[in-house]
Specification:
binds protoporphyrin IX containing FE, alpha+beta, globular, about 50% helix, Cytochrome p450, 2 domains
Length: about 500
Amino acid sequence: MAALNVSALLFDYLSLQICLIFSVSFLIVYRLLTRQKQVKLPPGPPCLPLVGNIHKLGGKQIHAVTANMSAKYGGIMNINLAGKKAVLLTDLHIIREAFLDKTDRFSDRSNSRFGEYINGYRGSLIFENGNGWKSHRRTTLRALRNFGMGKRSLENQINEEGRCLARSFEQENGRPFNPQATVQNAVANVICSISFGNRYDYDDPEFRRLLDYIKGFMKKLAGPSLVAVFPRLWFTPLYKSLRKQNDEMRTFLQEVVEQHKDTFDVNDIRDIIDVHLQNNDEEGGTAEQKLPQALIWRGLFDLFAAGTDTTSNTILWGILLLTQYPHVQEKMQQEIDDVIGRERPPTLPDRLHLPYVDATLMEIQRFRPVACFVPPRAASVDTEIRGYKIAKGTQVWANLYAVLHSPEHWSDPDEFIPERFLSADGKKTEAPDAFIPFGAGRRICIGEQLARMELFLFLTNLLQRFTLKIPQEDPKPNLAGYHGLTLSPDRFRICAVTR
Ligand code: HEM
């Protein structure tokens, strides 16, 4: 009996010891595992000294190159931009987690010294953060809606501009021409009308110079460009002409604001500049909520830059793709003839009855999305995505092209197939979650509705009147394009043959 008690005690003692050892080991392993998890960074390509991964991230096809990298490293990658921490997101679910589920932590834009040198961030719609940006965005969105975004009044104005564009195509008499400048001018005129109540003739030399500047700006300041990495280069002769054009653009916008101040009438609010002047005059609201008069030009600059190059390049992609897919062009023309005819201008409600046209416009934006990357965001606190640690201040790049070409969401993603957006009965369009050419979350494009109006009305106006073709003597155009700040088609010529 006594022997039994001793062995029972010994057994208890041993099992207690085993339990303790087991528990302590478990705790140590658990702590190690979780600690390791806390500091786990996303995988990414190997870096070179000083430049990091910059050498891999340049080039005309940066959107496709980085999309392909995700096959090796996954939908969230760690990249090193000459010592600056950054992550690149290529997966829809991860982008949604960051920009929608964790919008509080990923809605800031990443600001650099370079941006500060060019035009500063205060008053910028695209790059400012905090309460100043929130109220500026709210005021601009309200103004865009008041001045017709999504409404009939603006529809008439865009149709009018569409007719001017068609007239300038007509003047070419079926001969080959490059449509880039006129399309850019027509689109810029829409922004100008809403922002400061003016449009400019297509042969106005001063306006042409400003538009050329925007084009050059978008081309030369691509992604992680040299000057973004070494900001002081901005002040060297290397960027002299861009600096000069930037100054001209600023002076032009500041002069327009000054003219508005002289003629401002609170009972006749004409455009976005007047809305800001009115806001400034009103009592109430904190100083932060009011955009100082001296900075109104800065928001206009962003509207101009963000609204002109994106929309005009999308229309140019549309024109180019329709020349390469003549059966699509024919089907669109047929639908337009059946629903609208060739005389009456298109209206926004027509779009509902033009599912094939609508589907083609969506496919143009999917196939060649002009904004392949959203302007870089930044983590506003230490946080994590998918268990990976993202330190406060880390730049967050989202590759929308990767999502819009992912085989997970699209069958034959590299084929141009408008039908993919049509419902089974072909009577309406359906946009899947992966269709995000305008970004996502709190920073989603504020011009989405305006851009969609312009794409529809401009292209429909053109297809009512012309069949678009590549001149017989020209080589087959390259459909890859080049990536600057946006994805543009290479130079091409068309013949606009009157129908
Ligand atoms: C086809 C045409 C367009 C495309 C594809 C496009 C795309 C985009 C994208 C992807 C973003 C970044 C969104 C994000 O961070 O999630 C953006 C932002 C922005 N877009 Fe557009 N955009 C277009 C036209 C326009 C137009 C016409 C305007 C002017 C009314 C405009 C004004 C802006 C502004 C101001 C922002 C910054 C918003 C913010 O940071 O709060 N865009 N756009």
